[in-house]
Amino acid sequence: MKNESCNIWKKCTAQLIVVFAILLVLFGSGGCVSPPRLTVEDRRSDVEYLARWAKDYHACVEVNTKVAGLPDYEKLLPKYMDLAEQAKSNEEFLQVLWGYYTLIGASGHAYLLDEDQLLGYMLDSWQHDAKSLSDIPWRQFWKARYWPKLQKKDFSHAPFQIIRQGDDYFTGEDWSFWWKKVPADSQIVRVNGMSCSEYKDYLKRQTALRYVAGDGDMFAEQWLVMNERSGFKGWEVSFRLPDGKTCDSFVPRRKGPPRNIKKSKFTDWNKGNCECRELSDEVGYVRIKAMMPPGRWQKSDEKKIRRFLEKSQGWYKRLIIDLRHNRGGDARYTYDILIRPFLDEPLVYKQISGVKSKILTDLLVVRGTCSFEAWETAVEGVPPPEGFDPNVWQFFEIHREVKPSDRYAFDGDIYVLMDRRSGSATETYLDAVKRTGVATLVGQRSVGAGGGYIIAPVMRLPASGMIFRMEGDLDINPDGTFLELTGVQPDVELPSCPLPDRADKKTLLKDPWIQAVINGLNLP
Predict the structure, then answer these.
(1) d(CA 125, CA 147)
(2) Distance CA 78, CA 44 (A)
(3) Domain limits, the chain
(4) 3-state secondary structure of 156
(5) Helix, strand or coil for residue 182?
(6) At 384, phi and psi to the nearest 5?
């Protein structure tokens, strides 16, 4: 046993030394990646490859057109191939590709891998058998860093959160610039002298949004998002403050897409992933920022929740689990921390998920990983729904059974707060809650990127080397809608409001959604 442990330690140490050696060589050269030199034919072939990949493997492109009413990506292929041919630089070609990809990837997991994600895939691909994740060699993940670096030049975002309510836009947090203070819930009235609708139309004509087919409003949630010109520094914005006064201020841009916006203590898991608060003698509160993989973080969160509920001695009648802006992570967290310790008996439910047959035969993707397999009792093939060609599609009914674990000291009602940035593994949890009724879902629909039959694969364009993550399955909600299009719908829908900036008791008690739960969801 001692020799075996020693050998394992030596093997792990050797692997770490090699990893650090590789990183030292890469970063020692400045971490630079040479711009690819693409011919006209290279650009056209990459666009055509993307369309062909979507036809063969992407689970959502047909329903995007037939159900969501988006333009047909196949009919637009000649247009995008021509635009790619006319591109005068790699930057312009990326804008064209981004526009076409935005249409193809309108539902489900869909994004160009950023630098951190590429580095993670590269290390996984190198340390393990690359075929367990994809057929992309680890060196290609490193080379692909050129494209997200380039994309950052096209994107900006405001230094504050923006909340959309209908056709109006509001600040989601307090913000100050020099001596001017703009409080949360201030309305954005004009941008660069234009009304909001005028400015949005301007962006669609003058920025990379002009390459987006269909409705460019999908970027309206984080609205000050596109660079208007070379050397762009920011916006002149007119605000209407909550007290009715007006304030004009220059709003400096921050580089990168909206997801790079500075995180508050409420959203940054590096500042504590799980926070527990007593809001009253009868109401407890648990804030989860990300679904952490098994290990130190997950064990720490479980112990923190357990101690918190034991301290209450079972007096709480309501428990609020806040998953707003929780973009997911590992589904094992949702089952082991948020379901099993609340159960007295096994929780059984079913889910129907469909995939294109070619994704199971052609691609090296992960199906039935440990994230889901531990709770699968059976996977049975079922006939495709009406309108799905059985020669193209395979649908499966997945039977799940979640068994109880050491129970938390709580026997009241659970309320889960969710919003349009709750996604991926978080939706796996929300979907289970929706199907079983173990809690009440409160807030707004989720993003629409849950986990069903397979893990969303990555794909690489052969000429440019861009690497994307795409949706591989199509999950059907209990009401017959598609999860990737509509997300998980809450049991009680609430109007948009700014997030708290921290999770202390005083701040939380001012939150309208939390107050709605405390008041028994007696909405006006």
Answers:
(1) 20
(2) 9
(3) 40-151, 156-256, 269-518
(4) strand
(5) strand
(6) -65, 150
Q: How far apart are CA 101 and CA 60, in angstroms?
A: 13
Round to whole Å and give the CA distance between 427 and 435.
Answer: 12
Measuring CA to CA, which residue among 233, 258, 249 is closest to residue 157? 258
Structural element, H or E, at residue 476: strand 474-476
In the structure encoding, which two tokens stand for residue 452, read together?
């069903």
For residues 326 and 128, give the distance between their C-alpha atoms in angstroms, rounded to a whole number.
Answer: 28
156-256 is a CATH 2.30.42.10 domain: yes
Under a CB-based contact definition with an 8 Å cutoff, are residues 420 and 490 in contact? no
- Please name the CATH architecture into which domain 269-518 falls: Alpha-Beta Complex (3.90)
Place of tokens 């994704």: 359
**Where does 424-482 have alpha helices with state H?**
425-436
**Rounded-to-integer distance, Cα 447 and Cα 469, Å:** 16
Measured in residues, the chain has a length of 524
pLDDT at 2: 36
The token pair at 198 is 């005028």
Question: Is the per-residue pLDDT at 474 higher than 80?
Answer: yes
Buried b (16+ CB within 10 A) or exposed e, 425-458: bbbbbbbbbbbeebbbbbbbbbbbbbbbbbbbbb
pLDDT digits (tens, 9 = 90+) for 191-222: 999 998 888 888 888 888 888 886 555 554 45
